[in-house]
Amino acid sequence: MELTAAAIEAAFGETGDFVAREVEAAGWRLRLYFIDGLVTGGTISEYVLRPLAQALTGATMGQLVERAERGAVYNAVCVRVTDGADALSKLLNGFAVVLFPGEKTALAFEAKTTVNRSTGAPQVENTVKGAKDAFNENMRINTGLIRRHMRSEKLRFTQLVVGTQTATNVSVAWVDGVTDPELIERTVQRLKSLDVDSLATTAAAEEYLTGSRKTAFPLLQYTERTDRFVTALLAGRVGILIDGLPLAYLAPVNLGRLMDSPEDLSRDFVSASALRVLRYAALLVTLLLPGLYVAMAAFHQEMLPTALLQSVIESKQNVPFPTIIEVLFLLLAFEILQEAGLQLPQSIGQTVSIIGGLVVGSAAVEAKLISPAALIAVSVAGICGFALPGRDFADAIRIWRLVLAVAASIAGLFGLTAAVLLLVARLAGLQSYGAAYLAPFSAASGGGAILRKRLVTRNQKPEDAGQEGKP
Predict the structure, then answer these.
(1) How far apart are CA 95 and CA 224, in angstroms?
(2) H or E element at residue 362
């Protein structure tokens, strides 16, 4: 694309926020272009138009370009533009472009608007003792937050533009000397190879970056906390920041890292390790309990203790539906209640969840439509699911919980065992940027651990840390 006034004006057409005007400087008529809303008029007036009009009198056109670029136009960022496509990119990124007739060059001066959402506390990854600053939609603000947590010259950001229509700015973050160069190259090349219209949504980012694999399990980990992001970078992982998204992605990811809570590093290692073990127990309960209940109640009653079997039989008296119908109905009702709570405003969503969980559930038990034992099994499984740290990972577990319950209804414990083996085989076959997904349980462990390690200094042995409580 040629760098001419006609080409630039034709590219934007009749859009109302594109401003093109003619200005005089040093006796010459120049063309000024900017996008209203992406720049501030005061910045253009004070740091572009005033210096051009006052400080550059008596200059030839060539001198005008040279002196303006060297600093006579006192703007912090001045970029020489020699291509029409580059000029359009600068305009769409908050620059004012001055076109010099007769010259094969233009100058772009930064004049970005300062209207941004302020940083706030994390909305999902809540913390008691950790940092309270979270990412927002402006990528440059996010990189600044990261720099405040990690004041090191080894922190690197590789910036790219992805999306033929949205031209979304993407930054790959890594630490020089810590991150594997092969991982960095893999990430950058994958971003460069994307030929897509848009990268403006989380679903687009996650599916395009991971190859859109047919799995519900997340192959990228997202976080809205800057301290967690920096900790991951220092552990050798790669971070991905996308302009317009109030979160950041981390790669590679595995089961151990998905089960880590942001609050683990805010607790002492004993409490954090105990809670991690409890979290893994909750994972097994939420995944297996509905299927185990269906298998035991429908196929393997002889495996239950007599008192427990009698209790289950009494709870199912006068219930017109088989066990699998009860469990499937309750699981689906549980999912609908969660979705309803997300779609409604927060205060109304909480009310709907309470009414649906307590009133409707109790009424269904009293009406003999479902048995109390089935309601308890599904409720315990649902509550344990809330103990999982990541929502994406919890959503995948909810899907497989339903699959395991259906398998148990078909062949009892044999069907449940076959479905569990299928799940393990599926997870073993997954990789996130070349890393094994089942770490820390796989032989090729790629990070993550069930127990949190003690934090010690470089010149301190682990057993000497704290000296058994002595200061």
Answers:
(1) 29
(2) helix 361-366
pLDDT tens-digit series, residues 326-382:
888 888 888 887 777 777 766 666 666 666 666 677 777 777 788 888 888 888 998
Residue type, 372: P
Nearest to 321 by CA among 360, 362, 369: 369
Judge whether 5 and 23 are in contact, CB under 8 Å. Answer: no
Residues 6+ apart with CB under 8 A from 314: none
User: From edge to edge, which strands make up the β-sheet containing 155-162?
Assistant: 155-162, 168-175, 238-242, 248-251, 221-223
Sorted by sequence, the CB contacts under 8 Å of residue 66 that are 6+ apart come out as none
Q: How many CA atoms lie within 13 A of 341 on its CB side?
A: 14
pLDDT tens by residue, 81-127: 888 888 998 998 889 999 888 778 889 998 888 767 777 777 777 77
Report the distance separating Cα 135 and Cα 246, nearest Å.
Answer: 5
Neighbours of 308 (CB within 10 A): 12
Residues 6+ apart with CB under 8 A from 455: 269, 465
Q: What percent of the chain has pLDDT over 90?
A: 20
- Contacting residues for 304 by C-beta, under 8 A, at least 6 apart: 296, 312
The residue whose two tokens read 């009702």 is: 333
Q: What residue has token string 């414990």?
A: 413
Is the link from the previous residue into 372 a cis peptide, with omega within 30 of 0? Answer: no
| Cα–Cα nearest to 138, from 168, 158, 167, 173 | 168
Instruction: Tell me the Ramachandran region of residue 179: left when phi exceeds 0, alpha when psi lies from -120 to 50, beta otherwise.
Output: beta
Examine the pLDDT at 25 and tell me if it is beyond 90.
no
Reduced DSSP (H G I as helix, E B as strand, rest coil) percent helix, strand, coil of the chain, to 5: 50, 15, 35
Residues 31, 73: Cα–Cα separation, whole Å: 16
User: What's phi and psi for 94, nearest 5 deg?
Assistant: 90, 30
Q: 35, 15 in Cβ contact below 8 A?
A: no
CA 82, 84, 87 angle in degrees (round to 5)? 80
**Residue position matching structure tokens 């203790």:** 305
Rounded Cα–Cα distance for residues 103 and 49 (Å)? 19
Return phi, psi of residue 87, to 5°: -65, -40
pTM: 0.81
Can you list the alpha helix ranges (DSSP code H) found in 370-429?
372-385, 391-428
The answer for 161, left when phi > 0, alpha when psi is -120 to 50, beta otherwise, is: beta
